[in-house]
Amino acid sequence: MFLSLFRRRDNPYSLVVGMSGVQMGDRLLQVGCVDAAQLAAIAGKVGLSGRAAAIVPDAATGAQVEKAASRAGVLVEVTVSPLTRPLPVDDSAFDVAIVDDTAAAFTRMSPSDRGLVVRETLRVLRPGGRVMIIGATARTGLGAALQRGTPVLSADPTAAFQADGYKAVRVLAERDGLIFYEGMKPRA
Known about the structure:
Layout: H1 14-20, E1 27-31, H2 36-43, E2 51-56, H3 59-72, E3 77-80, E4 94-101, H4 105-108, H5 111-124, E5 125-136, H6 141-146, H7 158-163, E6 167-175, E7 178-184
Parallel strand pairs: 1-2, 1-4, 2-3, 4-5
Antiparallel strand pairs: 5-7, 6-7
Helix pairs in contact: 2-3
């Protein structure tokens, strides 16, 4: 009974969905995927008038995303492609691009591969579109005490995104072991 007071009763993805800022009708692209159910929760926000797509590095992750999307009742176009190659999508096709760095896959890339991911997200976003990077950070307080193992931490991607053309790259929030960065593609 006592511990049930501390248990979260809301959607476990409400923080990520809210921070993503994805809205009905948006065209969403996620690059990489650590948590397929999280991706499905975000994709659910685009509704029937929007589009959700994911570029994942392997078929197993693609199958997880398709299964999670089916459970959530959302449509996600899944493409399996190495993240270190040009993204197989059209120029200016998306309003929002999310780079999932919660397992530090982006952080661990070589500088040239990170640069390619940044330039490719810039290419596929419409003018005025935005990129969001979701990274992992050290938990604090009770969450840190209860955490098992050593967390995989993300590095600050601000410099990489600014160097390749994004404007107003900033930290939006840091909470519950996650850190959210946002950058805007210039309108002209």
